[in-house]
Amino acid sequence: MAEHTVRVRPPQRPRRTGARVFAARVVAVRDLSPHFRRLTLTAAEFADYAPAGPDEYLGLLLPRDERATLVLPANDGAENIRAAVAAIPEEERPELRWYTLRDHRPEEREIDIDFVVHGDEGPGTRFARRARAGSSLGVRECSALYAPPPEMRTRVLVGDESSLPAIARILETTDAGETHVFIEISDAAEKQDLPGAVTWVEREGEPPGSRLYRSVREAELPAAIDYAWVCGERLAVQELRRYLVARGVSKDRITFSGYWRLGEARG
Protein backbone atom coordinates (compact mmCIF):
# COMPACT_ATOMS: atom_id res chain seq x y z
CA MET A 1 0.00 0.00 0.00
CA ALA A 2 1.37 3.38 -0.96
CA GLU A 3 2.10 5.76 1.85
CA HIS A 4 0.14 9.00 2.02
CA THR A 5 1.69 12.11 3.51
CA VAL A 6 -0.74 14.31 5.35
CA ARG A 7 0.26 17.94 4.95
CA VAL A 8 -0.58 20.18 7.88
CA ARG A 9 -1.50 23.65 6.72
CA PRO A 10 0.65 26.26 8.46
CA PRO A 11 -1.05 29.00 10.46
CA GLN A 12 -2.45 31.67 8.19
CA ARG A 13 -1.63 35.31 8.84
CA PRO A 14 -4.62 37.56 9.47
CA ARG A 15 -5.78 39.46 6.41
CA ARG A 16 -7.93 42.52 5.92
CA THR A 17 -9.76 43.53 2.76
CA GLY A 18 -11.17 46.93 1.92
CA ALA A 19 -8.72 48.82 4.12
CA ARG A 20 -9.71 52.41 4.86
CA VAL A 21 -7.57 55.52 4.50
CA PHE A 22 -8.49 58.44 6.73
CA ALA A 23 -7.14 61.53 8.46
CA ALA A 24 -6.21 61.59 12.13
CA ARG A 25 -4.70 64.14 14.47
CA VAL A 26 -2.34 64.04 17.41
CA VAL A 27 -3.91 64.74 20.81
CA ALA A 28 -0.99 63.92 23.13
CA VAL A 29 2.78 63.44 23.04
CA ARG A 30 4.70 61.58 25.73
CA ASP A 31 8.35 60.53 26.03
CA LEU A 32 8.68 56.97 27.38
CA SER A 33 12.48 56.86 27.40
CA PRO A 34 15.40 58.74 25.79
CA HIS A 35 14.57 57.23 22.37
CA PHE A 36 10.88 56.29 22.60
CA ARG A 37 8.10 58.80 22.02
CA ARG A 38 4.39 57.92 22.19
CA LEU A 39 1.87 59.79 20.09
CA THR A 40 -1.83 59.47 20.87
CA LEU A 41 -3.99 59.84 17.77
CA THR A 42 -7.71 60.40 17.41
CA ALA A 43 -10.11 59.82 14.51
CA ALA A 44 -13.77 58.85 14.26
CA GLU A 45 -12.72 55.66 12.44
CA PHE A 46 -10.95 54.33 15.54
CA ALA A 47 -14.35 53.78 17.19
CA ASP A 48 -15.12 50.75 15.02
CA TYR A 49 -11.58 49.78 14.07
CA ALA A 50 -11.02 46.04 14.58
CA PRO A 51 -7.34 45.01 14.88
CA ALA A 52 -6.57 41.76 13.05
CA GLY A 53 -4.03 40.59 15.63
CA PRO A 54 -1.87 41.62 18.59
CA ASP A 55 0.95 42.96 16.42
CA GLU A 56 -1.39 45.02 14.24
CA TYR A 57 0.46 47.55 12.11
CA LEU A 58 -0.78 50.66 10.35
CA GLY A 59 0.42 52.74 7.43
CA LEU A 60 1.03 56.30 8.57
CA LEU A 61 0.93 59.02 5.91
CA LEU A 62 3.15 61.79 7.23
CA PRO A 63 3.24 65.35 5.87
CA ARG A 64 6.79 66.28 4.85
CA ASP A 65 6.86 69.25 7.23
CA GLU A 66 4.58 71.07 9.65
CA ARG A 67 3.57 73.61 7.01
CA ALA A 68 2.49 71.02 4.44
CA THR A 69 -1.21 70.36 3.84
CA LEU A 70 -2.18 66.74 4.42
CA VAL A 71 -3.07 65.12 1.08
CA LEU A 72 -4.31 61.52 1.13
CA PRO A 73 -4.84 59.00 -1.68
CA ALA A 74 -8.36 58.13 -2.76
CA ASN A 75 -10.16 56.04 -0.13
CA ASP A 76 -11.20 53.31 -2.56
CA GLY A 77 -9.94 50.24 -0.72
CA ALA A 78 -7.01 49.87 -3.12
CA GLU A 79 -4.68 47.08 -2.07
CA ASN A 80 -1.55 48.79 -3.39
CA ILE A 81 -1.26 51.75 -1.07
CA ARG A 82 2.30 52.45 -2.21
CA ALA A 83 1.15 52.97 -5.78
CA ALA A 84 -1.75 55.13 -4.60
CA VAL A 85 0.62 57.36 -2.64
CA ALA A 86 3.10 57.50 -5.53
CA ALA A 87 0.31 58.83 -7.76
CA ILE A 88 0.04 61.98 -5.62
CA PRO A 89 2.07 64.89 -7.08
CA GLU A 90 5.51 64.94 -5.49
CA GLU A 91 5.15 68.38 -3.95
CA GLU A 92 2.02 67.18 -2.06
CA ARG A 93 2.94 63.55 -1.47
CA PRO A 94 3.09 62.39 2.18
CA GLU A 95 5.70 59.92 3.42
CA LEU A 96 4.36 56.40 4.00
CA ARG A 97 5.78 54.45 6.95
CA TRP A 98 4.54 51.45 8.95
CA TYR A 99 4.09 51.39 12.71
CA THR A 100 2.63 49.04 15.32
CA LEU A 101 -0.66 49.91 16.98
CA ARG A 102 0.50 50.00 20.61
CA ASP A 103 -2.90 50.54 22.23
CA HIS A 104 -6.49 51.01 21.08
CA ARG A 105 -9.28 52.71 23.02
CA PRO A 106 -12.34 52.52 20.75
CA GLU A 107 -14.66 54.21 23.25
CA GLU A 108 -12.36 57.26 23.18
CA ARG A 109 -11.64 56.95 19.44
CA GLU A 110 -7.93 56.87 20.17
CA ILE A 111 -4.84 54.80 19.49
CA ASP A 112 -1.23 55.03 20.68
CA ILE A 113 1.78 54.69 18.38
CA ASP A 114 5.30 54.40 19.82
CA PHE A 115 8.12 55.85 17.71
CA VAL A 116 11.82 55.06 18.06
CA VAL A 117 13.52 58.42 17.58
CA HIS A 118 17.17 58.57 16.51
CA GLY A 119 18.57 61.88 15.31
CA ASP A 120 16.54 63.31 12.43
CA GLU A 121 17.25 60.66 9.84
CA GLY A 122 13.84 59.38 8.74
CA PRO A 123 10.30 60.67 8.09
CA GLY A 124 8.87 58.90 11.14
CA THR A 125 11.51 60.29 13.47
CA ARG A 126 11.13 63.79 12.04
CA PHE A 127 7.35 63.68 12.41
CA ALA A 128 7.49 62.32 15.96
CA ARG A 129 10.00 64.98 17.02
CA ARG A 130 7.94 67.90 15.74
CA ALA A 131 4.48 66.47 16.55
CA ARG A 132 2.27 68.34 18.96
CA ALA A 133 -1.44 68.35 19.83
CA GLY A 134 -3.27 69.20 16.62
CA SER A 135 -0.68 67.80 14.18
CA SER A 136 -2.36 66.00 11.26
CA LEU A 137 -1.46 62.74 9.56
CA GLY A 138 -3.13 60.01 7.56
CA VAL A 139 -3.81 56.40 8.58
CA ARG A 140 -4.16 53.39 6.35
CA GLU A 141 -5.56 50.22 7.92
CA CYS A 142 -3.35 47.18 7.48
CA SER A 143 -3.13 43.85 9.27
CA ALA A 144 -1.05 41.71 11.64
CA LEU A 145 1.66 39.05 11.42
CA TYR A 146 1.32 37.02 14.61
CA ALA A 147 -0.01 33.57 13.64
CA PRO A 148 0.82 30.75 16.08
CA PRO A 149 -0.46 27.20 15.60
CA PRO A 150 -3.53 26.26 17.65
CA GLU A 151 -1.60 23.73 19.73
CA MET A 152 1.17 26.16 20.72
CA ARG A 153 2.73 25.35 24.07
CA THR A 154 6.13 27.06 23.71
CA ARG A 155 7.06 30.22 21.87
CA VAL A 156 10.06 32.49 21.38
CA LEU A 157 9.69 36.22 20.70
CA VAL A 158 12.81 38.04 19.45
CA GLY A 159 13.36 41.61 18.30
CA ASP A 160 15.01 44.97 18.82
CA GLU A 161 13.60 48.34 19.87
CA SER A 162 11.74 48.68 16.56
CA SER A 163 9.67 45.61 17.44
CA LEU A 164 9.37 46.34 21.16
CA PRO A 165 5.83 47.80 20.79
CA ALA A 166 4.65 44.68 18.95
CA ILE A 167 6.24 42.31 21.46
CA ALA A 168 4.69 44.29 24.30
CA ARG A 169 1.26 44.04 22.71
CA ILE A 170 1.67 40.29 22.09
CA LEU A 171 2.60 39.71 25.73
CA GLU A 172 -0.28 41.83 26.99
CA THR A 173 -3.00 40.22 24.87
CA THR A 174 -1.97 36.59 24.27
CA ASP A 175 -0.65 33.67 26.27
CA ALA A 176 1.35 30.48 25.89
CA GLY A 177 2.42 27.77 28.28
CA GLU A 178 6.08 28.83 28.03
CA THR A 179 7.37 32.07 26.54
CA HIS A 180 10.97 33.22 26.00
CA VAL A 181 11.48 36.89 25.11
CA PHE A 182 14.66 38.58 23.87
CA ILE A 183 14.77 42.31 23.09
CA GLU A 184 17.86 44.21 22.01
CA ILE A 185 18.09 47.88 23.04
CA SER A 186 20.82 50.51 22.92
CA ASP A 187 21.20 50.68 26.72
CA ALA A 188 19.38 50.10 30.00
CA ALA A 189 17.55 53.44 29.81
CA GLU A 190 15.34 52.02 27.04
CA LYS A 191 13.86 49.18 29.11
CA GLN A 192 10.09 49.16 29.57
CA ASP A 193 7.81 47.35 32.01
CA LEU A 194 6.44 44.29 30.20
CA PRO A 195 4.43 41.28 31.41
CA GLY A 196 6.57 38.27 32.29
CA ALA A 197 10.30 37.73 32.11
CA VAL A 198 12.28 39.48 29.37
CA THR A 199 15.93 39.07 28.46
CA TRP A 200 17.08 42.61 27.73
CA VAL A 201 20.15 42.65 25.50
CA GLU A 202 22.08 45.92 25.63
CA ARG A 203 23.86 46.63 22.35
CA GLU A 204 26.88 48.29 23.97
CA GLY A 205 28.09 49.76 20.68
CA GLU A 206 28.11 46.50 18.74
CA PRO A 207 26.35 46.19 15.36
CA PRO A 208 22.57 45.68 15.62
CA GLY A 209 21.69 42.03 16.13
CA SER A 210 25.15 40.79 17.11
CA ARG A 211 24.57 40.52 20.85
CA LEU A 212 20.93 39.53 20.29
CA TYR A 213 22.01 36.56 18.15
CA ARG A 214 24.52 35.42 20.77
CA SER A 215 21.96 35.79 23.54
CA VAL A 216 19.45 33.57 21.73
CA ARG A 217 22.11 30.96 20.89
CA GLU A 218 23.34 30.80 24.48
CA ALA A 219 19.89 30.65 26.07
CA GLU A 220 18.36 27.50 27.50
CA LEU A 221 15.42 27.19 25.16
CA PRO A 222 12.92 24.32 25.14
CA ALA A 223 13.84 21.32 23.01
CA ALA A 224 10.64 21.80 21.00
CA ILE A 225 9.69 25.35 20.01
CA ASP A 226 6.14 25.44 18.70
CA TYR A 227 6.29 29.01 17.40
CA ALA A 228 8.85 31.78 16.91
CA TRP A 229 8.24 35.46 16.13
CA VAL A 230 11.36 37.34 14.98
CA CYS A 231 11.26 40.97 13.80
CA GLY A 232 13.76 43.81 13.70
CA GLU A 233 16.83 44.71 11.64
CA ARG A 234 16.59 42.77 8.38
CA LEU A 235 19.95 40.99 8.30
CA ALA A 236 19.78 40.13 12.00
CA VAL A 237 16.30 38.67 11.51
CA GLN A 238 17.53 36.50 8.63
CA GLU A 239 20.42 35.17 10.69
CA LEU A 240 18.18 34.40 13.66
CA ARG A 241 15.69 32.63 11.43
CA ARG A 242 18.45 30.46 9.96
CA TYR A 243 19.59 29.54 13.46
CA LEU A 244 16.09 28.57 14.57
CA VAL A 245 15.55 26.45 11.47
CA ALA A 246 18.90 24.71 12.03
CA ARG A 247 17.77 24.11 15.61
CA GLY A 248 14.73 22.23 14.34
CA VAL A 249 11.98 24.84 14.23
CA SER A 250 9.84 24.29 11.16
CA LYS A 251 9.92 27.22 8.73
CA ASP A 252 6.13 27.45 8.75
CA ARG A 253 6.28 27.96 12.53
CA ILE A 254 8.40 31.12 12.25
CA THR A 255 6.95 34.57 11.65
CA PHE A 256 9.71 36.96 10.62
CA SER A 257 9.94 40.48 9.21
CA GLY A 258 12.74 42.96 8.59
CA TYR A 259 11.32 46.15 10.08
CA TRP A 260 14.38 48.14 9.02
CA ARG A 261 17.83 47.72 7.46
CA LEU A 262 21.21 48.84 8.75
CA GLY A 263 22.53 51.72 6.65
CA GLU A 264 19.09 52.97 5.62
CA ALA A 265 17.11 55.69 7.37
CA ARG A 266 14.65 54.24 9.86
CA GLY A 267 11.03 55.24 9.91
Give the secondary structure arrangement, pairings included.
Layout: E1 21-33, E2 36-42, E3 57-62, H1 81-86, E4 95-105, E5 110-116, H2 123-130, E6 136-143, E7 154-160, H3 164-173, E8 178-185, E9 199-202, H4 210-218, E10 227-233, H5 234-246, E11 254-260
Parallel strand pairs: 7-8, 7-10, 8-9, 10-11
Antiparallel strand pairs: 1-2, 1-6, 2-5, 3-4, 3-6, 4-5
Helix pairs in contact: 4-5
DSSP strand tally: 11
**Total count of helical runs of at least 4 residues:** 5
Q: Strands of the largest sheet, in order across it?
A: 1-2-5-4-3-6
Unreliable residue runs: 1-10
The gyration radius over C-alpha positions equals 19 Å
| Overall pLDDT confidence | 90
- Distance between the first and last residues' Cα: 57 Å
Strand content range? 25-35%
The 3D shape can be described as globular
Helix/strand/pairing class, anyone? alpha/beta
**Helical residue percent band:** 10-25%
Q: Report the order of strands and helices.
A: EEEHEEHEEHEEHEHE
Report the biggest beta sheet as strand number plus sense, adding barrel if it closes.
Answer: 6 strands, antiparallel, barrel
Protein name: Siderophore-interacting protein
InterPro entries: FAD-bd_FR_type (IPR017927), FNR_nucleotide-bd (IPR039261), Riboflavin_synthase-like_b-brl (IPR017938), SIP_FAD-bd (IPR013113), SIP_fam (IPR039374), SIP_rossman_dom (IPR007037)
Domain FAD-binding FR-type: 19-149
GO molecular function: oxidoreductase activity
